[in-house]
Amino acid sequence: MVSPSERVVVGIDNGATKNNATVLDAAGRFLVDRMYEIPSRVAEGPASAIDSMAETMELVLRDIGVERERVVAVGLDTPGPASADGVISVKGATNFAQPGWWGFDVRAGLEERIGLPVVYNNDGNAAALYAHHVLLGADAMTSSSVSAIVGTGLGGGVIESGQVVRGATGMAGELGHVRIATDGILADDQPMPICGCGNAGDVESIASLTGIVRNLLPYWLGRYPEHPLAALPLADAAKAVRGYGVDGDEMALALFDQQAAALGRLFTIAANYSDPAVYFVGGGVVEAASHFGEWFLERVRVHTQLREEQAAIARFVLVPDRDMAGARGSALAAAAALTR
Ligand SMILES: [Zn+2]
């Protein structure tokens, strides 16, 4: 038997192309300070992907010299949409296009494969949980936060008293598909942004890479036809526009200010709905360069309407260690499940 002080939990962050993993010991220390970028084989279907997750765990344990017998639980996160217990949406999902995934229980699949209890979160919730705990430390269990993470879509999560708010079906914290008032954000002649989910004017239709490709860049390049990005295919231009923002380009800053305004409207809803103490912003947009990340965060703050009492205590913070946050949040969730 392994003594309580020797017990560890593993966190596995599953992405469309790569897995990352970490190990958390009984004293609450992360034993891994580097990224593992192991092919996730998600496109090959569930069996290959589950094998890859199990191999990721073995590899990380071997790398840091921790015996497998010490592992008492595993935390897993994947992109959504999925149920609170890790059943991938029956309608399929962007990252799980292979039909074998539809309705597949990825949590149970990994649990069966490795013979250890597995605790599931979607990737946005896992990152939100990590951000919350690393910032708030000893106050984490008595505090609340909301996280918005700008990526291909708009992910994130809601944390209340140190725990992920999951909801009845696990669909809580799907912040991207909250519709917001777009007056004062869109220019007078700008078409209403449409999201992949079908909503007009939800947060993700503006504050995501997909929103840039579909909605923001086509409009802004129409206003700036001489812009160097107008010569590129739209998907390439969308990835490159952040670099222009970092360099202070006028068009790029106008575009990113619209994203910041959309997040501000979302956070204004959060302020009225659950009144969190901390508002986290994460994702590629704020990782490019620190001055740009700080500018973007400040624009989000300016666009968030708080009451005087709220403004006096609210904190706006960038999600730390974003590339490690999923694996670390998953490990924290697994550790918390053991103590319940
Ligand atoms: Zn949507």
Features:
340 residues, alpha/beta, 2 domains, 5-stranded mixed beta sheet
Major sheet attributes? 5 strands, mixed
- Look at the helices and sheets and give the structural class: alpha/beta
Number of DSSP-assigned strands: 10
User: What average pLDDT do the residues reach?
Assistant: 94
CATH topology term of the largest domain: Nucleotidyltransferase, domain 5
Radius of gyration: 20 Å
Arrangement of strands in the largest sheet:
3-2-1-4-5
Global geometry: globular
What is the chain-wise order of helices and strands?
A: EEEHEHEHEEEHHHHEHHEH
Q: Please write the CATH class name of the largest domain.
A: Alpha Beta
Q: Determine the CATH superfamily of the largest domain.
A: ATPase, nucleotide binding domain
Tell me the CATH architecture of the largest domain.
2-Layer Sandwich
Bound molecules: zinc ion
Count up the domains.
2
N- and C-termini, Cα separation? 21 Å
In a nutshell, what does this entry contain?
With 340 residues, this protein is an alpha/beta fold. Helix content is 40%, strand content 16%.
